[in-house]
């Protein structure tokens, strides 16, 4: 706490992506926590003129509560690097690689990390695309979060509509083999895995509504796993953290199939901090309050930047 006294913390929220509303919720929750901690913070609702906003606020440290494009993709991180302002979360390269699902899957495969088989469709090649994967498949934008534009395709006649939806959000779409199993979220405290959360959406699909509407999803923390399953998931999460140059408190999402293989979906470098978010849930199970989690994220940012 002493290293943060006398500093002005800028909470960067809102932003320009389609996840703006979620970001505002995360930012406001973080702002309240920082004030409860007795620290000085200013709210910055990010616009195209973000450099002027940051400069005029005179901040010493940035808590990035931005979700989606321009927040998680290395863009804002690069600006803060130029300004020599320490910030929370992964660095420029780590953010950019983790945010793009195609690039991150390539890194997983190069490092022997389990990930579902996939194909890539780019908008100019859409009409010529041929699906080689058996149904069901998951169709998703390569660079969006919060399950925006994601469809589980179980029947062939649903495929074109799924592509159409995904292309509303991006120029590049991932078609991924559907893996049946337990959806698990593994928060990371640096390279140390936090208690695992088992996500059970009542609709059967963890979409935007299931993520952000109370009562739509059941969360079990700690997840009911065997010792071997837990250890396997934790080791894979550590491997993902290292391969994607993780920093701070990211979250690794996997699907654990019936054979005990944890197929990695992604690493979220700026996990949500809303009332239904998974990272605070894991932290609470580990004995860390929401305010303590925010404090640790800030302290970690100052240490990471010095490193």
TrEMBL record:
It is found in: Cytoplasm. Keywords: ATP-binding, Cell shape, Cell wall biogenesis/degradation, Cytoplasm, Ligase, Magnesium, Manganese, Metal-binding, Nucleotide-binding, Peptidoglycan synthesis. Gene3D superfamilies: 3.40.50.20, ATP-grasp fold, A domain (3.30.1490.20), ATP-grasp fold, B domain (3.30.470.20). InterPro entries: ATP-grasp, ATP_grasp_subdomain_1, D-Ala_lig_Van_CS, D_ala_D_ala, Dala_Dala_lig_C, Dala_Dala_lig_N, PreATP-grasp_dom_sf. Residues 105-299 form the ATP-grasp domain. Mg(2+) 2 binds at residues 266, 268. GO terms for biological process: cell wall organization; peptidoglycan biosynthetic process; regulation of cell shape. It catalyses: 2 D-alanine + ATP = D-alanyl-D-alanine + ADP + phosphate + H(+). Pathway: Cell wall biogenesis; peptidoglycan biosynthesis. Its cofactor is Mn(2+); Mg(2+). Its EC number is 6.3.2.4. Mg(2+) 1 binds at residues 253, 266. It comes from the Bacteria. GO terms for cellular component: cytoplasm. GO terms for molecular function: ATP binding; D-alanine-D-alanine ligase activity; metal ion binding. The active site is at residues 19, 146, 277. Its main location: cytoplasm. It is an enzyme of class 6 (ligase). HAMAP family: Dala_Dala_lig. NCBIfam families: D_ala_D_alaTIGR, PRK01372.1. Belongs to the D-alanine--D-alanine ligase family. Cell wall formation. This is D-alanine--D-alanine ligase.
